[in-house]
What does this fold into?
Amino acid sequence: MAFTTEAIHRLAALARLALTDAEAEQMAHELDGVFALLDRLQAAPTDGVEPLAHPLELTQRLRDDAVTEPDRRDALMALAPLAENGLYLVPKVIES
Amino acid sequence: MNAQHPLTISQLRRAFAEGKTTPEAVARAACERAHALQPTLNAFITIADDATLAARLTELAGASQASGPLAGIPIAHKDLFCTTEFPTTAASKMLDGYRSPFDATVVARLKAAGAVTIGKTNLDEFAMGSANAHSHFGPCRNPWATDRIPGGSSGGSAAAVAAGIVPAATGTDTGGSVRQPAAHCGVTGLKPTYGLVSRWGMIAYASSFDQAGIFARTAEDCALLLQAIAGFDPLDSTSAAVDVPDYAAALAALATERPLSGWRIGVAQAFLAADGLQPAVRDAVLAAARCYEQLGATLVDVDLPRAELAIPAYYVLAPAEASSNLARYDGVRYGYRTAHDDDLFAMYSRTRAEGFGWEVKRRILMGTYVLSAGYYDAYYRKAQQVRRLISDDYCNAFAVCDLILAPVTPTTAWRIGEKSDPVEEYLADVFTIGANLAGLPAIAHPCGFDGAGLPIGAQLIAPHFGEAKLLAAVHAYQNATDWHRAVPPVAAW
It folds into this structure.
């Protein structure tokens, strides 16, 4: 496999990660090496093997439908880089 | 204190009981050593200031914690655990200045047991690395040779214990991040069974692998620490609802003569024949095997036929989980945000470009790729199938043995900057990753030195929830050997 810089830019856009062209080129080179390693998986016979998503096959627990968390809105919003009137601020997303 | 040798938790407890020193004197001395060694080791990201320390010592003196099992014991937390007392950075610019509104369960439980946190330790950014070379705050250095890596990702914690700054520290182990630095720094490091210790408040890297762990000078101290942090936590949806055994009792129950009589220790021959395993490491691990035999254990050969697939399986699955977990860093709710916010897409992309380091970016892209349409079956699903095969291999091996003995790392600590190719660094995880894929508990303990005087570790792996046996075996080994007592020159004072 050989990653192109265009493919890396498309992938980076999916991951919301800005890369310069030089960075995309370096990343393409590095991912070529990494995927040569990962492609060793392809030779493993896995027909009929149930995928293992989790090391302990736990069942999801349920709890009573009760309020357990206090309201910490102010403390949590204080962590935001930009907030106003109890709202998180982001660049405008609706065109006028 | 005028100690010539760093004290263990057990020794400190005795010194407190006999009135030879006080928690305050020990905590202040630990902070002073942390500061003094910071230019040499860079083991810490934050060291407790006088006010934080004074507040904690006052809180401790007036509470039931004063009689807790770890009362007055100074510890350090890997800076991946959320703490209210200190900033939490994950060694990333992305969280520079972040102050958690809550304590991780591990932090809260150690506090309840009376421990005094003296700082937050360095790590690879978001725990992604095997060298502690990928930190926004600069690389951490190995106390045995400061031009070398301490191992990673929990390098700062291992270095802090090895250098005698603290008798114990926390870490996290997703692919070997406790055991590998423990081996490189010559300390004892335990990765518990997945689910035994709560992940609540531990910043997520790969959630089906991440497990909190501990570093100390001895298995005996690890038992005390594990007792404090293990057990069900309703705040972690993958926490295992199991009874926690009395680990100290398991150690105390060992016979004096041939304490491991009747135990079967499996030696993974494939690991010892692996390409790239340094002869000095192989010899030291084989010598440890003979020591376990002298302690009464029977050595048996075990086969782990799919072991060579562990690295590719892990480096598909862990980055996939990471790419999803790290989507939360968006510059909106907490952490770093770019000044270039012309539109929402640019704000997200630039925030993440400026906030994450290169290793993190690479893993996010690896994960995004293997989860993308068209590649999911070939990589993600395939790796999950291989994960089951590898888990089955361990399960089959434990049909003929109680514990598996293996090396921790293929080589001793390498020089900072020596491995520039990511694949080379990923390959260093070859002996540790299996336990993470299968969720098994494993411990690394010192078992020798190479010709350059660098520590070598041996690893024992147990079936799920077999921590008591792991700790007891290493306790027996440490009663019979001195490797764990060796200290680097910087730790003698």
About this structure: The first helix of chain B runs from residue 9 to 17.
